[in-house]
Amino acid sequence: MQKVIQIPLGNFSETSSPPHRGWELPYFLAGPENPLVEPAVRAIWEGSNSPYFPLVFYGPSGTGKTHLAHGLAETWKRIGNPGPVVLETAMDFHRQLVDALESQSLPEFLQRRVRAKLWILEDLETFAGKIFTQIQCSRILDQLRIQGTPHLATCRSLPGSIPGLEASFQARLLRGLVVNLALPSRPTRQMFLEELIRAQGIPYAPEAVSLLADRVQGTLAHLRKILMELAYVGSSRQGIQLPKVQTYLEQQPHELATEMRKIAEVAAQQFSVRLRDVRGPSRKKQVVYARGVAIYLARQLLGLGFQHIGEFFGNRDHTTILHSYQKTKKLLTEDPAVGRIVETLYETLHRQGFSQTAKPSPSNSFADGKTKTTKSKAWKTC
User: Fold this and answer.
1) Are 36 and 191 in contact (CB under 8 A)?
2) Distance (Å, rounded) from C-alpha 138 to C-alpha 236?
3) 214-237: pLDDT as tens digits
């Protein structure tokens, strides 16, 4: 098995069993698909003046951005780094900024962030079009850089491709370390399943878990959802067994086809074309754009292979699907209009209850802590 690193997150001793919160693991699994996460997190923990700052994690929902952000804030305190820590969403930042302007307390608002020893800002997309907010955030970033204060930001897309962000603000974000959080590889999926099953005390057959890791792609949140369903289907005492997994996987093509259809439908509606044309052979410009966006979203949100996506779109060859995906991905960095369309479709799917767009609930900023631990033992590898 390729190396997968466990990056501890949260308030627990390394010599004792971590307190698992429901179906959440208190560490981040960094597999071969995410090689930059370890050095990035280490730079945050060490809290030194580093060219890695600001640090930006970006990737689709479910790749662990919020899990990392909130866990790092907790771990910062656990290993004895000084406070205060400010953790907030970009929307909360904007709303508090508006309140500060109305109450004439802007200097106090800015000073709270500048005095922070670690500042974490989530969901940068909500800054789009808010020019004054971006200017004030840039002022804070400049001061934190001078002080050598670590700053972490998260977003779903590469900062340079987010429509509505000013070039100067994008430049500040891109001059540090920008890390793309990728969908989990097969080794990461295998370890995630094994760790979660052990944490929950669920009986299981190794071959059943191996089959799940092979066949179920997508985000770890999606994998967790499937594991929960399997754990409570039938007799809970049986746990995760091979026949149960095989039966579940036989039903999966229908479920995935339903999710694919949702994505293709909203893409077709956005471009004012017919769904049957998007799935068919049409090469009209609008249809091709709609098809490319649908393919991109299917890959990002469902983690499907290009062959499976091709089967849905008229049994197209996987190389054709790959080309369309790469073309759309390139357009996202070059054409702000395409970025806005993808963002709109993402929000539309979320409002429709699309399972892969669900976000973890944000929590408040963390209070100062005094507990210390040894930094040299912060990593566990298998």
Assistant:
1) no
2) 53
3) 888 778 888 888 888 888 766 556
* Residues 318, 133: Cα–Cα separation, whole Å: 43
With a pLDDT cut of 90, the percent of the chain lying above it is 37
Q: What are phi and psi of 326, to 5 degrees?
A: -65, -35
8-state DSSP, 101: H
Decide yes or no: CATH 1.10.1750.10 for domain 256-353.
yes
Residue of 301, 292, 342 whose CA lies nearest to 322: 292
Q: Which residues pair with 57 in a beta bridge?
A: 154, 179
On the question of pLDDT at 13 being above 50, the answer is no
- Supply angle C-alpha 93, 109, 80, rounded to 5: 85
Residue with tokens 């969908």: 183
Model confidence pTM above 0.85: no
The order of strands in the sheet holding 151-155 is 85-89, 118-122, 151-155, 55-58, 177-180
Element (H, E) at 85: strand 85-89
- Structure tokens that stand for 58 in this block: 């970006």
For the stretch 59-88, pLDDT in tens is 877 788 988 999 888 888 888 888 799 999
The matching CATH number, chosen from 3.40.1790.10, 3.40.50.300, 3.40.250.10, 3.40.50.2300, for 35-181 is 3.40.50.300
| Count of positions (residues) in the chain | 382
Bond prior to 32 in cis (omega within 30° of 0):
no
